[in-house]
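G., the chain you wanted modeled:
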Amino acid sequence: MNSAKQYVLPTIVVLLALATAVFWYLRPDICQRGITYTVGRIDAGFNLTEPELRAALDDAGDVWEEVLGYDVFRFDPDGDLDVFLIFDERQEQTQIEQQERANLTQQEGKVDSDTEEINKLEEQIRSVERQYESLVRTYDTEKSTYDALIARGATTQEIKTQEVKLNSLVPDLNEKQDELNILISRFNTKITSTQGLVDSYNQSADNYNNEFTGTRVFDQGEHTPGRITIYQYDNYDDLVLVLAHEMGHALGIGHVDSDTSVMHAQLENQDIKNIMLSLDDQSALGRVCTF
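Predicted structure as tokens:
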């Protein structure tokens, strides 16, 4: 009996150890298991619908799945990862800045439009000036001929003929002078009004720079167990980038060094029009997922 107990006990321990090893070996990584997410809450201040957020989440998931080659993130009404958009002073300040920037863009567009009109008026003035100067030269030539006829005692008929010719030039000359004066008046009026727009734009630009330029350090989003919270984004592409970053944290990936990476601590230098994983991102992904 004693020898039987001594033989059986080690066998059980070995079998348990083997079973544990097999269990750990067969357990899939987080990417193979997948992550389900759902929409928790979207504060009204974002002016974003649930379908729009889900589209952004889908695009953000694609950033990771294109490298992995298989689906990882999936929407599920009962998903394990809740996504919240919480409106506070960060997004409020962003919206104020965007409105001020839009106002500046509108003012700049008006200045550019007026400047273009000024340039066209200037071209018209130069063209009419050339026409007017040509008429003056013609008039002066005919006037010299008329004076010469008087000086040499030409016949009355010759003088009369030249006088009629000379006088026929006057209406065109006066008309062209009037046209030139009107253009110059319009040009000066437009210059004055545009200068007012330029002064207003420069003042608005100064106010904008004083209020909004410089570095603002804040979290656009955060990941906590079972939850992603988004606080601020500039536009749809920026939202996709922030979501992709927080999804990386949900996979268990920390921050990386490259400042153009999705998983860099600061989301400033990434190409949001073409969001893709950097080599640093892929290396970090490889430590938690198989691909």
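The chain has two domains: 28-88+231-286, 99-212.

Shout if anything looks off.
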